[in-house]
Amino acid sequence: MTLTPLLSASPAIQIHAFAAMAAFVLGIVQLARRKGGSLHRALGYTWAAAMILVAVSSFWISEINQWNGLSLIHLLSIQVLVTLPIALMAARRGNIRRHRFSMVGMFVGALVVAGLFTLLPGRIMHAVVFGG
């Protein structure tokens, strides 16, 4: 494992990848911890900020150029930017079921599933994790 391919990538890719890694770790912590309370809220807002950074930074990444620099993965970024405020408002309004469904869905879809695709051969994270 070496960070060299990532550190050699564009700033947008670096920001995107490090924000995604932070969101992944924070997401695991949030899923494992007791829900509710001020620490849950603080970690949740930090996770949300990391997810916004992941989603927004993706629009400056165009390696998979399907339509004028955009790809299907950018639809996921749009979904995060739409779903995240809805999930936060659901929690504030006491709709914990919707909040949980939205947050877990974003974690699984935008971090786990999309993250697995970054490990495909030819991708930067594949080179980071598996070398060369």
Produce the secondary structure layout.
Elements: H1 4-7, H2 11-32, H3 37-58, H4 73-92, H5 96-117, H6 124-130
Helix pairs in contact: 2-3, 2-5, 3-4, 4-5
Quick overview of this protein structure:
This protein is an all-alpha fold. The chain has helices at residues 4-7, 11-32, 37-58, 73-92, 96-117, 124-130.
Summarize this structure as a short list of keywords or feature phrases.
132 residues, mainly alpha, 73% helix
Describe this structure in words.
With 132 residues, the protein is mainly alpha-helical. The protein has one domain. 73% of the residues lie in helices and 0% in strands. The chain contains six helices and no strands. α2 (11-32) crosses α5. It is globular. The model has no long low-confidence stretch (mean pLDDT 92).
Distance between the termini: 9 Å
The overall average pLDDT, rounded, is 92
Q: Which word captures the global form?
A: globular
The low-confidence parts are: none
Largest sheet: none
Secondary-structure-based class equals mainly alpha
Q: Helix coverage percent of residues?
A: over 70%
How many separate domains? Answer: 1
Order of helices and strands: HHHHHH
Beta-strand level of the residues, as a percent range?
under 5%
Overall number of strands = 0
Q: In angstroms, what is the radius of gyration?
A: 15 Å
Number of alpha- plus pi-helical segments:
6
